[in-house]
Design a protein that fits this description.
Largest interface: A-B, 30 and 30 residues
Oligomer: homodimer
Strand order of the largest sheet of chain A: 1-9-8-7-5-6
CATH topology of the largest domain in chain A: Rossmann fold
Radius of gyration of chain A: 19 Å
Distance between the termini of chain A: 46 Å
Largest sheet of chain A: 6 strands, parallel
Number of domains of chain A: 2
Strand content of chain A: 5-15%
Order of helices and strands of chain A: EHEHEHEHHHEHEHEEHEH
Helix content of chain A: 40-55%
Chain lengths: 283, 283
């Protein structure tokens, strides 16, 4: 790494992943298989609707079928799980994505765990989390996998580094911590109850922001030369990191937008193609 | 906590747990149910044989049935899994313990994961790990649960503390890290690739040694006033911590033996009784 600031360009990493998928999708087409991702959107949250649309469009551009299922905001857990089970049994569907978050009356964990592990391309099931933690997951959670993919693309070493993860959600903070641990980083997991957060973040060679609060990570917290990955995406296209301030101290940083986000979507597409190939292999 | 050194007496914590179990076992007996733990020992490792015997004896003293299954050192993964499946289906068996480690020809992970989650009283399955990580496990891994039980018994606060865990195994380092995280500690996970281990251990308010190397954790690594939990048990009754040297700096410490070990066994018994009660409730 040189001493200039390295802007970790998510669009570039995502394009690299998608380019590799094109030939794989073509090979599958020759066998009569079109990879298919079913997306489920519950309710009418505009941000969630945008995410689902973006994912659907990304599928189409690669020749992946996107089957969109939209459910009313009053959908019950039982109704949602029944639909997931139909998709589990539908051999034309290779991947299932339930857009997070779901309305409050739904037991999101139960709904996630209803997804068959062979179709859990978004990496949200309880079992998938543990397989990932133990290093043998078929499909790790997409955002954590995207963070690791960005580091790998830019050949930023993980082994022996001190990674500080701010956030501990089941689909982001916890799995990314364990992925970095399995790549031989020393990992510190921080959260809302952490004391002296600024000084702990300051010990990180790699800092992952996964907290869901705009511009939460401050520039003067950052160790000179640290690598910053901002997994946040808040209203107004703002990440969890105070980008301009952190850029002054970091050696490398993901912007928002065009940082972790596009790589997350590319990872979802990759997992969907993986799942379709798995099916082609099995039959 | 006063300023004197607090020796965290595992025998005392274990007795407290076992005392609470006595009345529960009696109640189950009135319903015609004897909690039953099946232990599987593969091969003839003398240390493992001792552990299994200790667990069996601890069962008997509480009125818990212990069914010991000893298999030859050449047992295959398939043979072991077939036996586990028989125990899964046996309604008289409430808990199944496969003594770790198994001979090298066996896929230990596959064998652990063959244990039905409702009988996984030792907390070794992949799914159980994730349920624990997400805070809703029926039966967390016994040693991690024992460590938390010791802290709770002595009313040592966990929330907001910086816990440093040395070790990252699937049944000890990883689950104890996530348990402490779920109790609102800030958690750092260290391992063989960690750089500056001494100085990182020195940031810990709580230090968990789970590394499997005798006297590995040095006294001068320890922050004054830290609480030390030694989950190691090496040849010659020696833990992973240099006890005498660490005692000088710590405010509280578990000895070896009579520290984490007996509480681990008591936790196993508690989970077995929990499982038997669950069955009594369901029928």
């Amino acid at each position: 790494m040189n001493t200039e600031k390295l802007i970790l360009d998510g669009a570039c990493v995502a394009n690299d992943i998608k380019e590799q998928l094109l030939s794989r999708v073509k090979l599958l087409a020759e066998k009569g298989i079109t990879p298919c991702l079913a997306t489920i959107l519950v309710g009418d949250d505009p941000a969630s609707a945008t995410y689902v649309r973006m994912k659907g469009n990304a599928c189409k551009r690669l020749g992946i079928e996107s089957r969109r299922i939209s459910l009313g905001k009053d959908t019950s857990t039982e109704q949602l799980i029944a639909i997931i089970q139909q998709l589990n049994e539908d051999s034309d569907v290779h991947g299932i994505l339930l857009q997070h978050p779901v309305p409050h009356q739904i037991d999101e964990r139960a709904a996630f765990d209803a997804i068959d592990i062979t179709k859990d391309v978004d990496g949200v099931t309880t079992l998938g989390f543990a397989q990932n933690a133990f290093g043998f997951a078929a499909y790790p959670s997409c955002t954590p996998a995207a963070i690791v993919a960005i580091l790998d693309y830019y050949q930023i070493p993980i082994e022996g580094k001190h990674a500080v993860v701010v956030g501990r959600s089941p689909i982001l903070g916890k799995p990314v911590s364990l992925m970095l641990l399995n790549r031989n980083a020393t990992v510190t997991i921080c959260h809302s109850k952490t004391k002296n957060l600024a000084s702990i973040v300051g010990t990180g060679d790699i800092v992952v922001a996964a907290v869901g609060k705009p511009k939460f990570i401050q520039g003067d917290w950052i160790q000179p030369g640290a690598v910053i990955l901002d997994a946040g995406y808040n209203e107004g296209n703002v990440g969890d990191v105070d980008y301009e301030a952190c850029l002054l101290h970091a050696s490398a940083i993901t912007p928002v937008p065009a940082g972790v986000g596009p790589v997350t979507i590319a990872t979802l597409l990759k997992h969907t193609v993986d799942a379709a190939e798995q099916l082609a292999f099995l039959r």
